[in-house]
Design brief:
The complex is a heterodimer. Chain A is an alpha/beta fold. Helix content of chain A is 38%, strand content 18%. Chain A has a 9-stranded mixed sheet. A two-stranded antiparallel sheet of chain A has the order 5-6. In chain A, helix 8 packs across helix 13. Chain A is globular, with a radius of gyration of 19 Å. Chain B has a domain of 132 residues: 3-Layer(aba) Sandwich (Peroxisomal Thiolase, Chain A, domain 1), CATH 3.40.47. In chain B, 35% of the residues lie in helices and 18% in strands. Chain B contains 14 helices and 11 strands. In chain B, the strands form 2 sheets. Chain B has a 9-stranded mixed sheet with strand order 3-2-4-7-1-8-11-10-9, with helices on both faces. A two-stranded antiparallel ribbon of chain B has the order 5-6. In chain B, a hairpin with a 2-residue loop joins strand 5 and strand 6. In chain B, helix 4 crosses helix 14. Chain B is globular and about 55 Å long. Classes of the chains: A alpha/beta, B alpha/beta. Strand 3 of chain A pairs antiparallel with strand 3 of chain B, so a sheet runs across the interface.
Chain lengths: 385, 382
């Protein structure tokens, strides 16, 4: 991707994501992540030039929430904006921050994503995604879509519920090593298969939770980044790819993820992603999505996603670890979720991922899913070429 | 990769109190088709990225850019939504081009106020614990602002009403305007009192409509049009949230936003260096207050400036020759209409509302109650 100048992540902050946070309001929740990012970068708020923020406004029911957030985000008397794109929001905010710094107009920009889902009704909010006349009576939240996806995948390729359950077990195992993860469960395949059926073949443990949490990233120009930290993580490329709004109109053919991945790999000379990427933080709202999206990311052939998880290739110690953080299945504060993918990938490249650290991580991919099957990809590297 | 960015095309719908014949995605479709036809560009071949501006609250749709994805170029291409006033979407599109990531960006904003209740939505912008329960909306907050402004600087009701008289008269020459009339100060002050001291004709009306703009880097811009309108400066700024945290008679965030934009554009004396301004005055008194924030006059002199006729068409610095927001533009869309109208002026295509010899213009948008966030763009024809 052409860029006026290089941009690096120089500060990373996130909250300890939880089911309940009655001790803070939304502004205080955001402030926790902002302070953590500033501390991580060794910066003061006065050194930040612009603040970009995003969330799902109808989930909590706050109009123009960036206004309320100025005391928590630090945006008071600063440049900034609110930018959103559904589940992909956290990544979209980070991409916008990349544009801001690359433009040459700003040297140090703070990007924030957050959600306090306990203060709203996520499923009601998600139901309002569908067209009131043609979609709302049949669509209900996200679960139905992933049920359709899973059932179709089983029918087409002979994938099994056990294979999907293995994705959940891997996520749980990794989340136990992540101090920020929301769900920390010791799970077996049988536990997942025995969990409550929501919509065949989706069981309770096949779906992501609803979490409260915030994430903040500080991005800086190359010159500034090198003065701020000796471990900058470089944003090499980003790809945003959307799809049609009517779910019934989403055609057979390339998905937004497949299209975006093809473009990203081509632009960055990646011929064998499984070999050339060291880890992936994948936005997987359900187990089935992770299996299918291995294929869309060209980690394996069509229909081989189940085998990939069975081989352990995507385990923490595998040849292409996916979601060492425990992923979205363990932690899902929606407006922050996509940014957490980028934050976790960056922590890996810095070697700061603690017990969940992947060995020799030089290049990482973070994905984001949202809207009507939308994708945002972010390619990160430890070193500039 | 471009150092300079230009507006190369623009389109607006006619703004109306209600447009029952069109859904909001059809409003977006109307302006996208118009702007593509005007520039001869196609989404598939020419547009690298789309920035939209809309609000989940007004559309009653979570992720309000989904329903316009297909008309705004969201098929296997990039699209991002700025969830505030759309002047900020133009600002962001400019940044996307300056970053080197994209060369040609389509910006689209839409809103159908007729299908929602303004005061209920605006109430949701207030603190959920302490302020929402009082029943605040933006009108009630603006009334506090107007009172404080009048008290602190001795601004009169008649001076505020003059902004409505001027803008509603200017709107008569704007074919896109929704509300236009020739009225006197007395008639404005005799219109129904909505929230003291703000009268009906001093308040933006309910409005439906959409606006689209295409921006391009310099090389592409010169290929697309022989009348590029250059983005010479941009600035924005957030003020404090709680009404009690700000002095509502001043507009600190507008002063800072304007300074940021002026610095980029090399403007030291806007009254002398700017030929026309399109500002987002949601209430009549705000136009006077924004004069001060934009540095057209000293603090507290907004009333004198309008009384001297400086901001009339034919004055030294015409403000809102389009009729402004008081003539009717939906929330979220209003700021981009300011950009489009300023660009029309610089292209010399503003018809009967044309300001002669306009070479430098200001376009201004605001978000949040009492103008918490301001966005200022300086546009130039050379």
């Amino acid at each position: 991707m052409a860029r006026r100048r290089n941009v690096a992540i120089v500060g990373i902050g996130q909250t300890h994501h939880r089911q309940r946070r009655p001790d803070v309001n939304q502004v205080e929740l955001v402030n926790e992540a902002v302070r953590a990012a500033l501390e991580d970068a060794g910066l003061r708020m006065g050194q930040i030039e612009a603040v970009l923020i995003g969330n799902m406004e109808l989930f909590e029911g706050n109009y123009l929430v960036d206004m309320w957030q100025v005391d928590g985000s630090g945006a008071y008397l600063k440049s900034g904006m609110k930018i959103t794109s559904g589940g992909t929001t956290g990544a979209t905010v980070a991409v916008a921050a990349d544009h801001y710094v690359a433009s040459g107009l700003f040297d140090t920009v703070l990007a924030i994503g957050y959600e306090k889902q306990e203060e709203g009704d996520t499923n009601a909010g998600l139901n309002a995604v569908a067209d009131p006349l043609w979609g709302r009576t049949m669509a209900s939240g996200a679960i139905g879509y992933f049920a359709f996806m899973g059932a179709n995948y089983m029918q087409q390729y002979g994938a099994t519920e056990e294979q999907a359950a293995k994705v959940r077990v891997k996520a749980a195992r990794n989340a136990l090593k992540n101090p920020y993860a929301h769900l920390k469960l010791s799970l077996t395949v049988q536990d997942v298969l025995n969990s409550r059926l929501l919509a065949y073949p989706i069981k309770l443990l096949d779906m992501c939770p609803t979490s409260n949490g915030a994430c903040a990233l500080i991005l800086a120009s190359e010159e500034r980044a090198k003065r701020i930290t000796d471990k900058p993580v470089w944003i090499m490329d980003t790809v945003t790819c959307h799809n049609e709004g009517y779910f019934g109109a989403v055609r057979e053919g390339p998905s937004s993820l497949e299209t975006a991945a093809r473009k990203l790999y081509q632009r960055n000379g990646i011929a064998h992603p499984r070999k050339e990427l060291d880890l992936i933080e994948l936005y997987e709202p359900s187990t089935w999505a992770e299996l299918i999206w291995y294929e869309y990311l060209f980690l394996c052939e069509r229909g081989e996603g189940g085998k990939l998880i069975e081989q352990g290739a995507t385990d923490l110690e595998g040849d292409i670890p996916v979601n060492p953080s425990g992923g979205v299945l363990s932690t899902n504060p929606i407006g922050a979720t996509a940014m957490i993918r980028i934050a976790e990938a960056a922590l890996q490249l810095r070697g700061d991922a603690g017990e969940r650290q992947v060995a020799k991580a030089e290049r990482a991919l973070a994905t984001a899913f949202g809207g009507s099957f939308w994708t945002v990809l972010t390619l990160l590297q430890k070193k500039l070429p | 990769m471009s150092d300079r960015v230009a507006i190369v095309g623009l389109a607006q719908t006619k703004f109306e109190e209600q447009k029952p014949a069109q859904g909001f995605s059809e409003l977006a479709y109307e302006v996208v088709e118009k702007v593509l036809a005007q520039t001869g560009l196609t989404i598939e071949e020419d547009i690298d990225s789309t920035v939209t501006a809309s609000q989940d609250f007004w559309d009653g749709r979570t992720i309000s850019d989904i329903p316009i994805g297909d008309v705004a170029g969201g098929h296997l291409r990039p699209e991002e939504k700025v969830a505030m006033d759309s002047a900020q979407a133009v600002y962001y599109a400019t940044i996307q081009i300056l970053s080197g990531h994209y060369d040609v960006v389509l910006v689209v904003s839409h809103c159908k106020e007729s299908q929602a209740c303004r005061s209920v939505i605006e109430n949701a912008a207030f603190d959920p614990l302490y302020q929402r329960i009082i029943g605040f909306d933006f009108l009630a907050a603006a009334a506090l602002q107007a009172r404080r402004y009048m008290y602190k600087y001795g601004i009169t009701e008649a001076q505020c009403a003059k902004a409505a008289v001027k803008n509603l008269k200017n709107a008569q020459k704007n074919p896109y305007a929704q509300r236009s009339m020739v009225v006197t100060v007395e008639q404005v002050l005799n219109s129904p009192l909505l929230a003291s001291p703000i009268h009906q004709l001093e308040t933006k009306p309910q409005s439906d409509g959409a606006c689209a703009v295409i921006l391009a880097g310099e090389e592409k811009a010169r290929q697309i049009t022989d009348k590029p309108v250059w983005v010479r400066g941009l600035g924005n700024c957030y003020d404090g949230y709680y009404l009690g945290d700000r002095d509502l008679a001043d507009c600190q965030s507008l002063i800072i936003a304007a300074q940021r934009a002026y610095k980029m554009a090399g403007i030291k004396n806007p009254l002398r260096q700017v030929d026309v301004a399109e500002v987002s005055e949601e209430y009549a008194h705000q136009e006077l207050l924004w004069y001060e924030g934009l540095g057209f006059c000293d603090r507290g002199d907004g009333g004198k400036l309008i009384s001297r006729g400086v901001t009339e068409i034919g004055g030294k610095l015409p403000v809102n020759p389009s009729g402004g927001v008081l003539a009717g533009n939906p929330t979220t869309v209003a700021g981009m209409v300011r950009v489009a109208e300023a660009a029309l002026q610089l292209r010399g295509e503003a018809g009967e509302r044309q300001v002669p010899h306009a070479r430098t213009a200001i376009a201004h948008g605001q978000s949040g109650y009492c103008g918490q966030h301001h966005c200022v763009l300086i546009l130039g024809s050379d």
